[in-house]
Amino acid sequence: MKRLRAAVVYVTLVCITAACASSRMSSSEVTKPYALALRALYDTIAHMDSVLFDAFNNRDLDKQKKVFATDLEFYHDHGGLTNYNQLIENTRRLFDQNNGLRRTLIPGSLEVYPIKDYGAIEIGMHRYCHSENGKDDCGTFKFVHIWQKRVDGWKLTRVISYDH
Question: DUF4440 domain: which residues (predicted)?
């Protein structure tokens, strides 16, 4: 009887160990590391990101407007949904505060994936800083941008800003 009980315990431990090992393998497969799919697409979207945020950092709203699609949808985890006109007005108000607001892309965070017959997905993290009471106030946030390749060039059509 003792041998049977010991055998059952042993088999149970082997099964639990095997189950844990296989679940570890499957979770690592789900979170596979980013692999650059298409260098040319990555370079193009990285360039478009820099065009957009160079304009932002230099308070050039007219240049920013050229990057955004007029059917833009901007989703913010705290602010909700904003359309093109609302985003432009909100950005104008931000610039009017003249508090040194600036954005930097977190090095190594940019990922780009193709969207068949449409454009690209850009995923990354960025840091925003502004001056408040004479000190820099900064935060690091996540974003997803959906870019569409149109006849008149690349346009940003959807933005998801989260983890604020």
Answer: 46-156
pLDDT 10s digits, 6-47: 333 333 333 333 444 444 444 445 666 777 768 999 999 999
Instruction: Write out the H or E segment, with its range, that includes residue 147.
Output: strand 135-150
The residue whose two tokens read 């009980």 is 5
Three-class DSSP category at 117 = coil
Structure tokens given for 113: 């994936």
Which residues are within 8 A (CB) of 82 and not within 5 positions of it... i.e. 6 or more apart?
73, 74, 75, 76, 90
Pick from 3, 109, 110: which is nearest to 47 by CA? 110
CA distance 162 to 144: 9
Q: What is the pTM of this model?
A: 0.78
